[in-house]
Amino acid sequence: MMFYIHKAACISPQQTFGDIDIEQLHVAVDNKLYAIEPKYPHFNGNALRRMSKSTRMGAGAALPLLADNDKPNGIIIGTQVSGMEENGKFLNQIIEYNEDMLTPGSFVQGTPNTISSQIALINNNKNYNLTHVHRGLAFENAALDAAMLVNENPAHTYLLGGVDEISANNYTLDTLGGWFKKEPCPSDGLYNSTTAGSLSGEGATMFTVSGNQAGAIAKLSAITTIHSSDVAVVKERIKNFISKELPDGKKIDLLLTGENGDARVFPFYQACEEILDDQTAIARFKHMSGEYPTASSFALWLACNFVGGILNIPRHMIKRHGDLKSLKNILVYNTHKVGQHGCMLVNVA
Amino acid sequence: MDRIVVTGIGVISAIGHSVNENHAALVMGKTGIIKGGGNFPSRYSGLLPFGEVLVSTDELKTKLNVTQPGVTRTTLLALHAFKEAIADAGLSPDELSAHDTALVGATTVGGMCLTDELYANTHGDTENVEYVRSFDYASVNLFIQNRYNITGVVNTMNTACSSSANAIMYGCRLIKNGLASRVIVGGADSLAKFTVNGFNALRILSDEACTPFDQNRKGLNLGEGAAFLVLEKESDATGKKNYACVSGYGNANDAYHPSSLSPEGDGPYLAMKSALESAGLNPADIDFINAHGTGTENNDEVESRAMLNLFGTLPNFASTKGFTGHTLGAASAIEAVYSVLNIDRQELYPNLNFSEPIADIRLQPVMDHRSAAITHVMSNSFGFGGNCTSLVFSKP
Amino acid sequence: MEIAELKEKLKVQIIQFLNLTDLTPADIKDDEPLFGDGLGLDSIDSLELIVLLKREYGVNIQDPKEGRKVLVDVNTMAAYIKEHGQK
């Protein structure tokens, strides 16, 4: 399962949209990394007021990819819950007004498929449209969907995205669940932390993908998902993935991991590092994006820009420089809440 | 390429807790929609009719031997139907945990059925945190995946009312693309304050039993339930009961409005048309349409127009929402099971509560239980956000 | 409340309730159509406005079709509140 990536756009807590600068690290405030949102000049006020933050970021990141009236043959989005803030508002209304006379706006805006359907509306796109919501593998499953579509119709072009937002509700619930740090944690101290939990993050990343190699910035040559909480099982599966998918004579030039400062999750990243030889370069991204269910889409955006020669790896991302010379093959490994793992192999196009 | 065949089915809904019970009610024309007398804790129980599964959450836990904390009603309904489907297909524990077995489920409520618990947790209750890990949609399938040690592809999708039609389509595509040999596909939703109040705020809930395709329809009734189907490659299913094959699917977006369909029904038309194309069939080949038919003013009129545009002269059609209510993320999977029964039993089930055709359109659904020669059935699902999906099931 | 004061208050509430962030009360004329070519509101907005009338003024509109007659412009909304308001 593979596809070529032709365009990529990303709204994230870093300066990744418009004038891109990822050398300068934007840091977390109160353990949260909020996305730097553009002004969205292309949405008039009437459109914007009806969008949850997820929809706004998702449609905002999609717009540059839909310029020139490009109409993809399908829109595929991965998100855990999408408009969680709107969902929360509606849940609160139910209790606070005791189910009486509620406003429908936040109910409609909170449904996860509003990102893909808003993009369809803006693009007047009546083609294939699907929203994957499988938590920490929502984006990987969306990418798998896109890869299957490309396999089915190699000449077609698809819009693929991963989007999630920080909301008061999910921040509280995930903090109670132990997934965000309870003590203050600076961005640059994330990887030295020895406690449970990570920093909270958000973002929207969009790609146009197809089976056409010409003009592509990168190739996603393989993807796999693993459901297990057993380090040994996960390690074996990643090992098999690499040996099956990496052509003979090629090596992984860079391992890009979702290491996130959560002591409970660290053994998985450590196990993945152990698979590769000790000269393989390793870089991390969660200090930039924060932890969110579709953060691997941010990692894929970085990987595309690295193999495409568009961006250099900033120093603050590097864990081990190793013998990094050329960047042709990147392995992206990310795990979310221990049980869900995704691997993507990204190569030069 | 091998055909994809249905080797197991499982369903729980307001009209029964098994395929056999559902079938008996469909034949008898016995609705599951009631006003009052259920367990659903909402100010609207007693005021609005619902298609409720009349088993309490605790009873479901006992029956299914679920003892761990944090398991929601949505998950329990899903598990109930899942168990029936895999037993029906005779899948062994080894087959379930094989790397080429996939699980694709849909839900629009997921853990959001816990309105009060979530409110308490997000407003300072840090003691009772049983459910903080199950508030999302994925929690349903992650529970099933853990319980049965499923190691292949596991996915959850939410495209509102067409969610589980997309799960079925996605499962077929996993097989066709060589990513799975067998898939267990379906959907589940429980009655929830979240959806009841959402649909009520949109003023599309009827205070009487819904009357799909009737001139005087007043809106939909919400229901709950779950259904799963086991799909396998025909060559792997030798010697097994083969209910039907999934012969086509089509997915399109209406691109018109967040919560209503375009007047001409472009999305529904395109979904049905591409389902036919993918099945390699002509409109005249379809013997029966299990319509989306929610009973809202908007859906039934638009769906009628789109069907007329595509088919010219319509085959027999009916909506089963008058039996179960609209079960949202479970609806397409439940109706897929009913479509499979149409084929397996060679019979049609009535569209309940119909008396007067919609003016200008004059379409009349099937109104009684009857035997019929059925080779191809189309099942329609159209949702908020313009997400439309149609499936075609065929005689094996 | 004087009708002029009521209309001003309504404009503030409409902007707030419908999140019309790029408008100020002065942008909304008393006889500007709320739907269609005027403010460009849609069917979901009309349901939101019905809730506004109920929560802020105790005005009950059960049938959304009845709402369409009330929710023509700020003038018709204010007149209806004067006639039916409880608060």
TrEMBL record, chain B:
InterPro entries linked to this entry: Beta-ketoacyl_synthase, Ketoacyl_synth_AS, Ketoacyl_synth_C, Ketoacyl_synth_N, PKS_Beta-ketoAc_synthase_dom, Thiolase-like
CDD domains: KAS_I_II (cd00834)
SMART domains cross-referenced by the UniProt entry: PKS_KS
Protein's UniProt keywords contain Transferase: yes
UniProt keyword terms in alphabetical order: Transferase
Domain Ketosynthase family 3 (KS3): 1-395
Family, per entry: Belongs to the thiolase-like superfamily. Beta-ketoacyl-ACP synthases family.
Protein name: Beta-ketoacyl-[acyl-carrier-protein] synthase family protein
TrEMBL record, chain C:
Superkingdom assignment: Bacteria
Name of the featured protein: Phosphopantetheine-binding protein
UniProt cross-references to InterPro entries, sorted A to Z: ACP-like_sf (IPR036736), PP-bd_ACP (IPR009081)
Annotated Pfam families: PP-binding
Domain Carrier: 1-85
